[in-house]
Specification:
about 75% helix, Arc Repressor Mutant, subunit A, mainly alpha, about 0% strand, about 200 residues, 2 domains, Rna Polymerase Sigma Factor, Chain: A
Length: about 200
């Protein structure tokens, strides 16, 4: 953390709104990116980002300078996303919609020859949608660990610090999440082949 950021945090704690606005300006790109990994709807992303910064402002007195401010803020964002995913999952209680014909064709092509269409934007878009459907069928904890590791590129140690759990817990969750995602993928591949 730069000394300038430490000064801004001190000013925020005394109620200086402009100092907090500066912190928001500095950290909002990363917070929006993190939230966008979990939610695609722009309105949801904006609402959750606002919620994250509001929570950060309210609990700024609990922040200690021992860890980076960006990490502390990211932890709030991830926990907010996790709670939202959990609420959504409880509300919906149904699996994601069945894949459409284009997704089934892409799944078949992917399962037979994953290198095909690697540079084709349409095929990549269909595969991205398919990955999102697979992720939607995972539990929020499974989604969280896979997105943090595979998309955000966080290490096991970083995630363990973020969640305040032992590294082995993160490894086990990642293993189970990958295994569950693979079983969903195989189920979709089986469905694809039976429809053809």
């Amino acid at each position: 953390m730069t000394p300038d950021e430490q000064t801004l945090i001190k000013q925020c704690r005394t109620g200086d709104q402009s100092a907090f606005e500066e912190l928001v300006k500095r950290h909002s790109p990363r917070i929006f990116r993190i939230i966008h990994r979990f939610f695609r709807e722009q309105a949801t992303v904006e609402d959750l980002a606002q919620d994250v910064f509001l929570k950060a402002f309210r609990s700024l007195n609990t922040y200690s300078n021992k860890s980076p401010f960006a990490g502390w803020l990211a932890a709030i964002a991830i926990n907010t996303c996790y709670r939202q995913l959990d609420e959504r999952r409880r509300r919906e209680k149904t699996l994601a919609a069945e894949p459409g014909p284009e997704e089934l064709a892409a799944l078949e092509a992917f399962s037979l020859a994953p290198e095909q269409g690697g540079n084709d934007p349409e095929k990549r878009a269909v595969l991205r949608d398919l990955v999102e459907k697979i992720l939607a069928q995972l539990t929020p904890k499974e989604q969280m660990v896979l997105i943090l590791m595979e998309v955000e590129g966080m290490s096991v140690a970083e995630i363990a610090r973020l969640w305040a759990v032992p590294a082995i817990t993160v490894r086990v969750r990642a293993f189970r999440a990958r295994k569950h995602a693979l079983s969903i993928f195989r189920g979709l591949a089986k469905t694809t082949q039976s429809l053809l």
